Structure formats: C-alpha cells, structure tokens
Amino acid sequence: MAKKNLNEMSFLDHLEELRWVLVRSTTAILIMAFVTYFVSDFLFNDIIFGPTRPSFFTYRFFCDLSHQLGFVDSICITELPFIIQNTQMEGQVNMFVWMCLLAGFILSFPYILFEVWKFISPALYDQEKKGAKFFIGVSSVLFFLGVLFGYFIIIPMSVNFVATFTVSDVVKNQFTLESYIGLVKTSVLAGGLFFELPIVIYFLTKLGLVTPEFLRKYWKYAVIIILIVAAIVTPPDVVSQTIVAIPMLLIYEVSILISKLVVRNQKKQNG
C-alpha cells in the first residue's frame, strides 16, 4: 500500500508510524548490543573499568599537564584506593546486559537520528528536508563528543574524587558494582545529551519557544549551574574544574549563536 501523505494521515496513522520508528530503533540497538557481546572483554576490562586504574589516559594527561604548569605532582594520580565488589547474585549478569545495551544505543545513535528525521520530515519544508544529512551528521558528532567528554573527563574526575575522599582513615572505600556502573551510564549519557543542546535550541527557536534574548538573560544562571556541576565532579583544584567547565560553557555559547542565526533567517524570510 502506498505511503500516505502527511495531510492524509490521521492521528492513529501517526501513532502507527511512531510505533515502527520505535521498533526499528530498538532493533538497531539490540543488534549493536549483540555485536558488543563478541568484544565484551575489551568493553569491560579496557573501556568500562579503564578509569579505575592510575594508568588511565586522563590521569596521565593531567599529570603531564601539572608538570608543564609547574605544579610538580600536585594532581598526579598514583593510586586509587578502592575496590569494586558485587553484592547481588545476579548483579554481574544484569550489569553485563545493561552495558551491552548502552553500548548498542551509543553505536546505533546515528541510525536512531535517521529514524527520527524520517518521522518528522513530512512536517518540514522542502528546503529543510535537504538538511537531513547535515542534521544527522552534526547531531551524531555532537553526541559522540559528549560521550567522549563524559568518559574521559567526567568519569575519571568523579572516580578520583570519591576514591580519595575520606572522612577518616578507619573507613575503606568498597564501591558496589551497581554504583560504579551507574556512574558510567549517567556520565556518558548526560555528556552525550548535553552536547545535543545546540540542536535542541535550534528546534526550540524554530518553534518560537526560545529566543537568543532569553538564553542571554539567563546566561549567568547557566554559568553558575555549570560551575557547580564542575565543582561536584572534579577534585578541589582550579585546573580540573576549569577543564570540565570550559567545554560546557562553549556549548551554551554555541547554542545562543545558533538561536541568533535562526531568528535572523526567519526575519529575512518574513521580510
């Protein structure tokens, strides 16, 4: 049966189309999750648990940076005094499944964007439809950059902070597998989704829900929130907090710029 035009589709037709978008996206995630099963040793030992070792790239980078800035060994990490333990019978099985699904979601993200674009494209103008490749490409790049930011910056900073913070020498850090995996999932997903902010602002501005003036008005509040987040997830030193905060501030500034460009183009089209 030929596909209906947008004007011919009822509400139930839209729901049916959305259902198939979800089905195809879920299938893609499951396929990529199954693929990660064959590299699960590398996924867990080298990637997921990489930030638990002092030899992790980020720790070595900060150590070299501290030497170049003349701080000697002030932020060098030679030991992470904690262990990760499993306290539930099915804990390792559950974590294995969920992390494979998370990896499947990250790897299939461009395809999910493609499905979303196909779903919303009938409501767009022909000129806007031509930007499909650009939209998918930019959104995917931003998402992957956010995931890398979460993995190489947020996770090691957080691990280092909680591992070295102690209220007394009597207390030894023994983290549960669930809490560590939760940190990994939250950091990479939050990083990936936060880096999608320029794309979200683009569409919100197109819909008239956000303006550059609004974003600029609340800029100082955004800065405060970003600095608080940076202070929470990093050790108590200015260098680490700055490294975390700067990319987040840049993303917010880029979002303001994109909002301005959208408003300017809309004024040209209407004028």
UniProtKB/TrEMBL annotation:
<feature type="transmembrane region" description="Helical">
    <location>
        <begin position="134"/>
        <end position="159"/>
    </location>
</feature>
<protein>
    <recommendedName>
        <fullName>Sec-independent protein translocase protein TatC</fullName>
    </recommendedName>
</protein>
<feature type="transmembrane region" description="Helical">
    <location>
        <begin position="242"/>
        <end position="263"/>
    </location>
</feature>
<feature type="transmembrane region" description="Helical">
    <location>
        <begin position="217"/>
        <end position="236"/>
    </location>
</feature>
<comment type="similarity">
    <text>Belongs to the TatC family.</text>
</comment>
<keyword id="KW-0813">Transport</keyword>
<dbReference type="GO" id="GO:0065002">
    <property type="term" value="P:intracellular protein transmembrane transport"/>
</dbReference>
<feature type="transmembrane region" description="Helical">
    <location>
        <begin position="179"/>
        <end position="205"/>
    </location>
</feature>
<keyword id="KW-0812">Transmembrane</keyword>
<dbReference type="GO" id="GO:0009977">
    <property type="term" value="F:proton motive force dependent protein transmembrane transporter activity"/>
</dbReference>
<keyword id="KW-0811">Translocation</keyword>
<dbReference type="InterPro" id="IPR002033">
    <property type="entry name" value="TatC"/>
</dbReference>
<comment type="subunit">
    <text>Forms a complex with TatA.</text>
</comment>
<comment type="function">
    <text>Part of the twin-arginine translocation (Tat) system that transports large folded proteins containing a characteristic twin-arginine motif in their signal peptide across membranes.</text>
</comment>
<dbReference type="GO" id="GO:0033281">
    <property type="term" value="C:TAT protein transport complex"/>
</dbReference>
<feature type="transmembrane region" description="Helical">
    <location>
        <begin position="21"/>
        <end position="39"/>
    </location>
</feature>
<keyword id="KW-1003">Cell membrane</keyword>
<feature type="transmembrane region" description="Helical">
    <location>
        <begin position="95"/>
        <end position="114"/>
    </location>
</feature>
<keyword id="KW-0472">Membrane</keyword>
<keyword id="KW-0653">Protein transport</keyword>
<dbReference type="Pfam" id="PF00902">
    <property type="entry name" value="TatC"/>
</dbReference>
<keyword id="KW-1133">Transmembrane helix</keyword>
<dbReference type="GO" id="GO:0043953">
    <property type="term" value="P:protein transport by the Tat complex"/>
</dbReference>
